[in-house]
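Researcher: Sequence recovery benchmark, item below. Answer with residues only.
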């Protein structure tokens, strides 16, 4: 065991490395030489299932179903690539096309659809060939050295079972209950995973984020795109635009407070729209938000608006907003962080100068979103 105590633990596992040197060592090895997402999503699926039901055994089909659930939002909602030849991504897209479930569906709904769809489960069965066994490779590197690839799966299954009576047992081994293939957790590993679920999940998500970011190098907010979306809080944004509206009305410039898509004046009943879709930027920063009528927001959905038509209107409205709140710097921090200029410097540029800054920010991000498959060139039908 001394060899593990001398290992430098991975940062995500520092908190538990002293108590569990051998377990953190093996966890640190499982994602070495990762060329596809399967091992990453496999571990995340195991943790998800353990969190919901701390069972000692799991059906392979249940794990594969959960892997599809884990991949749903990154692939369907956020349009991330899991790799050019990644079969899990393709299967998830096929399931979505067949079932018609919304990209932002809740995990529970996705799980029900997949579990009730034999065709979807059949499509996921390809994972059975390599993923469950190859995840355990670090436990048996010496025994597997020089072994032909065609013999490895059978060898790992036997080694995993034989290891259960040793001090360095594999995380799980393979069994069959009736006609159902399962994995059975090693008791010590099972206890370890349950007691350190949050730490191990952080470790797995960090590695998954690194993997996905490498395949989507210019995409913003990858870390926030690995899980199902949470409820967005736009209360602060609504307060900001309500303040701006009041200031514009007080100063006699109420004509500036318009829905930038319809170009109609807005009353006090308005909703907040993300100019670049939230599912692309995954933030609620003010420089990307505009007040719009509810029908406009519903019509636009997560499309990219026509920049030639709407970007000048966006810049004009935000210039009026900055001017209205120029004495309240705290309200304008999002603009300061985005454009790297003070409110006074932004106002000194005038509407034309602010529009130029918006073009610098919006054009490259819009191009990336287009490349990911977001609908572009949207115009409101009046």
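Model:
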């Amino acid at each position: 065991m001394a060899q593990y105590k001398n290992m430098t633990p991975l940062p995500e596992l520092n908190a538990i490395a002293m108590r569990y040197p051998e377990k953190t060592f093996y966890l640190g090895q499982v994602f070495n030489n990762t060329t596809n997402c399967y091992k990453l999503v496999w571990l995340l699926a195991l943790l998800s299932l353990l969190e919901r039901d701390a069972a000692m055994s799991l059906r392979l089909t249940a794990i594969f179903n959960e892997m599809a659930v884990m991949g749903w939002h990154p692939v369907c909602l956020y349009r991330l690539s899991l790799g050019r030849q990644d079969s899990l991504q393709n299967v998830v897209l096929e399931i979505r096309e067949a079932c018609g479930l919304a990209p932002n569906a809740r995990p529970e709904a996705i799980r029900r659809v997949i579990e009730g769809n034999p065709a979807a489960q059949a499509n996921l069965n390809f994972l059975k060939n390599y993923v469950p066994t190859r995840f355990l490779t670090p436990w048996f590197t010496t025994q597997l050295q020089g072994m032909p690839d065609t013999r490895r799966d059978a060898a790992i299954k036997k080694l995993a079972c034989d290891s259960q009576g040793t001090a360095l047992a594999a995380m799980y081994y393979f069994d069959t209950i009736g006609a159902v293939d399962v994995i059975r957790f090693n008791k010590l590993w099972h206890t370890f995973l349950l007691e350190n679920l949050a730490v191990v999940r952080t470790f797995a998500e960090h590695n998954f984020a690194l993997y996905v970011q490498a395949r989507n190098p210019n995409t913003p907010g990858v870390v926030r795109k690995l899980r199902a979306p949470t409820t967005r809080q736009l209360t602060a944004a609504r307060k900001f635009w309500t303040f701006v509206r009041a200031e514009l009305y007080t100063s006699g410039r109420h004509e500036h407070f318009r829905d930038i898509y319809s170009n109609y004046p807005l009353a006090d009943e308005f909703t907040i729209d993300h100019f670049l879709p939230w599912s692309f930027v995954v933030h609620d920063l003010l420089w990307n938000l505009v007040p719009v009528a509810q029908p406009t927001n519903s019509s636009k959905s997560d499309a990219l608006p026509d920049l030639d038509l709407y970007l000048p209107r966006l810049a004009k409205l935000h210039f009026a907003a900055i001017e209205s709140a120029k004495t309240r710097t705290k309200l304008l921090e999002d603009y300061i962080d985005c454009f790297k200029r003070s409110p006074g410097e932004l106002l000194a540029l005038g509407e034309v100068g602010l529009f130029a800054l918006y073009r610098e920010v919006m054009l490259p991000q819009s191009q990336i979103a287009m490349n990911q498959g977001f609908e572009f060139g949207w115009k409101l039908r009046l």
